[in-house]
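Bit of a strange request maybe. I'm writing a small parser for structure token strings and I need a real example to test against, not something I typed by hand. Could someone generate the tokens for this chain?
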Amino acid sequence: MCLAYLIFKCVFTICVIVYLLFRQLRTNAGEVCFPGGKSDPGDRDAVDTALREAHEEIGLSPDQVDVVCTLFPIMNKTGLLVTPVVGFIEASFSPRPNPAEVSAVFTVPLEFFIREAHHTSYSPPGISGLLHSFLFLDPETGTCYQIWGLTAILAILVSVLALRKKPEFEIGFNSADPESFFLDNLNKRISKL
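Reply from user aminoacidic:
Good idea to test on real output. This should exercise your parser:
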């Protein structure tokens, strides 16, 4: 599984695109996430998968994305290996959500994910690290979205790496060396399979 972590400049700040999954989907219905999904046989790599999924889900053409990097793989709650793909897009991009999959598309400033104001976390049993949650009020629509779990930790991770700032709250990993925590966690989960 690959996620396209789409970053763009929006009026003097750096933002990310996230969306709300259609509530009638079989998995993760009604959750906020980044564009992405499982690889298809025709996909060459994680970047191909992320770009194809972003095109299918929000109408973002692959040639509109300047891919910067892929991050280290992270295992999600169901055991799928997720490879985040980070890229820049133009602020002028206008999403065309796939109505069968996506209920809403919105942008969140990266800075939001290092501020304590709308953040909560706890340490659930059986999980290494903290489970993070943010409440984001979309200024354009007035809709409040909960961004939590894998989406939240990836947003924190990319915010720490891109902004080179430590969050105002405990994140459960060393912000100067996040890769060690995530790779150790991945190896622990793999050893239990």
